[in-house]
Amino acid sequence: EWWQVAVFWAASLVVAVLLTIGYRTRLACGLAFLAIISFQQRNPLTWDGSDFVFRVIPFWLVFTAAGDRFSVDAALRRARGERVTGFGPALPIRILQLQLAWVYLASGLEKLGGRLWLDGIALCYALQLKHTWARAYAEPLAHVEPFVRAVSWGTLTLELGFLPAVFFPFLQPYLRTLAVAAAAMLHTGILVMMNVGN
Fold first, then answer.
1. Residue 194, strand partner residues
2. Is residue 69 within 8 Å of residue 84, measured between CB atoms?
3. Taking a C-beta distance cutoff of 8 angstroms, is the pair 77, 84 a contact?
4. Would you state the pLDDT for residue 196?
5. How far apart are CA 92 and CA 153, in angstroms?
6. Average of pLDDT values for 22-49?
7. Strand, coil or helix: what is 19?
8. What's the pLDDT score for residue 114?
9. What is the mean predicted confidence (pLDDT) over 127-150?
10. Coil, strand or helix: which one is 80?
11. What pLDDT sits at residue 198?
């Protein structure tokens, strides 16, 4: 019934707030994971790639030291006189990083199967989909060839290079920071120019 979904949704919002402020963080991560998979399993035909990312993040955060430094949990521990270091096991963090980096790599490898990304014109087509995915005000940029080529090739470079840049920063000390900044710029560009929901 609709009211059952509404109650579950309200409970999920409470869990999201608890996770955001870091109260009972490990439990909140587990409950967030259960809430996400519950909603996703309700209608799997509406999934996209971002839904998978939403699912794995709270799962792996259960095993991390999330909430051990800047959180209500940490403040409560400090108030009880306990030592708060913010340090925890590295393996779950590395696995989470690897899963997210793999999303970029898989996306980049998929793009190599066609010519549009290699030719640097993929963005031209994407920005002209104003009836479905592109924002109408972004369409004029589809006809600016230097912009289209730079963003198309930049996206491909980021997706193929993100995993090695994040996991092998000894190659260049600032490579990880550069990769994360480039990913943030990519997603900001998608948010501004595309209408893809999540």
1. 134
2. yes
3. yes
4. 74
5. 32
6. 88
7. helix
8. 87
9. 86
10. coil
11. 55
Query: Which of 182, 191, 142 lies closest to 162, judged by CA?
Result: 182
Amino acid identity of residue 41, one-letter, is Q
pTM, full prediction: 0.74
In a 10 Å sphere around its CB, with 0-12 CB exposed, 13-18 middle and 19+ buried, how is residue 153 labelled?
middle
Residue 139 has pLDDT above 70, yes or no: yes
> Count of CB atoms within 10 A of residue 104's CB?
21
What is d(CA 168, CA 174) in angstroms, rounded to the nearest whole number? 11
**Residues 155, 58: Cα–Cα separation, whole Å:** 27
Give, as one character, the DSSP assignment of residue 66: T
Q: What are 143's two structure tokens?
A: 């006809």
- Tokens representing 39? 């909603």
Q: Which amino acid is at 168?
A: F
Q: Which residues contact 99 (CB under 8 A, 6 or more apart)?
A: 56, 60
The torsion angles phi and psi of 83, rounded to 5 degrees, stand at -80, 130
